[in-house]
Amino acid sequence: MLTLGVDLAAADKRTAMATIEWLSDRAVVRDLVLDVSDACIVKASHDVDKTGLDCPLGWPGPFVALMTAHQSGHVTVAESEGAQWRRRMAYRLTDEVVREKTGIVPLSVAADRIAHTALRCAGLLAMLAADGQDVDRCGSGKIVEVYPAAALNCWGLTHRGYKGRGQQAQHADLVTALCAAAPWLELGAFEALCRRSHDAFDSVVAALSARAAAMGKATRPNEEQRVIARTEGWIALPTCPPSGLIDMAEA
């Protein structure tokens, strides 16, 4: 099995992509690149079994309805529920599920800078679909939405404080911790890049999360949630420890 992990940014710069090959007793990082274009992502995704995209695959349904209504007139909001109403506009169902399960509040695709990345992702999803890939925003097709920080949290690893200037030591420690938790993971020639770039590291975690989803070892929406997740997207959280990603029976 091959899985692809993409740490998507608003532009090619800072976008990272990792390809992992899964063998019977180990997982090998076969490729790890930075500054990746949409065309490169589509091509790489075509050749793997599952692709994990670290980016919201859609917007909150109530937010979309609000924008449509506001375009043609004015909207009315009861003063007593202003803050709660804004939260419903800002966060998707899957964001609330992640918050409930991990305590992590995902960035709001409706009210944060990640919306720039989501705009790129919307075009990328169209390209993937045009390539014949099954783009089901619930994650049951070729593409699945992943969230590296939440995956690290599920595995009991540090998920905050390893990004940005002056965080090289914390980032290096986290790479070491992941390798200890997953001794079967072979970074090989890409270890230095993984330690140097948190974007590269996140793409590796995205590829690991894609593996969990491919094995059925990640959260899935129930039938009621699927109705919403089909348009908003669904974050697949690993439900197994890192050791559960290795299937000793797989050849």
UniProtKB/TrEMBL annotation:
Specify the protein name.
DUF429 domain-containing protein
Q: Which Pfam families does the record associate with it?
A: DUF429
